[in-house]
Write a structure and sequence with these properties.
This protein is of the alpha+beta class and 168 residues long. The chain contains 7 helices and 3 strands. It has a 3-stranded mixed sheet.
């Protein structure tokens, strides 16, 4: 994300936190609507995630990153748009399409899993990584749909891209 976020890379964690809160595990009964339960209802009503619609467009409609400054938010959205040019661990799907398909499937499931978004070092593993059922948080006894974005530090962007190409 370094190339996209530039001096705003300090916001990456809070942008991921915003995503993770929107897709968080249920926090109680009906009076505590939010997280994955709310996302299931929003998906049913508005089809926020749809085949052919970029993940970035859906994230924008959820106002993710709205607490950051406009430049940081827009750079984050530009990064998300870029994911269509990244590979994924889902056969036949680029990073963007793989994320959208995974979210559509999860939100339509009989028992949808909360979703955890993270990032990983592009120099170690290229492309978007999706795990249908994982436990990314050691301190929570909770299964998640886990989606990890490839990232590299600003200073290593050129090196990261070269390393990623070698691994393909």
């Amino acid at each position: 994300m370094g190339f996209f976020m530039k001096e705003h890379d300090i916001y990456v964690g809070s942008m991921l936190d915003d995503l993770n809160l929107r897709f968080a595990p249920p926090q109680g009964g009906k009076e505590h609507s939010g997280g994955i339960d709310e996302m299931v209802e929003l998906q049913k009503e508005f089809q926020i995630f749809k085949d052919g619609r970029p993940f970035a467009t859906s994230v924008t409609s959820l106002h993710i990153g709205g607490g950051a400054n406009h430049e940081a938010k827009n750079r984050f959205y530009a990064y998300l748009k870029y994911l269509r040019r990244e590979t994924s661990n889902v056969k036949g799907k680029d990073g963007d399409a793989a994320i959208v398909a995974a979210l559509i499937k999860d939100l339509a499931a009989k028992k949808p899993l909360p979703v955890y978004f993270s990032n990983h070092d592009l120099r170690e593993s290229a492309g978007v990584i999706i795990k249908d059922k994982a436990r990314p948080l050691f301190y929570m006894d909770q299964d998640y749909l886990w989606i990890s974005f490839p990232s590299a530090p600003r200073s290593a962007d050129g090196a990261a891209k070269k390393a990623a190409k070698k691994k393909k």
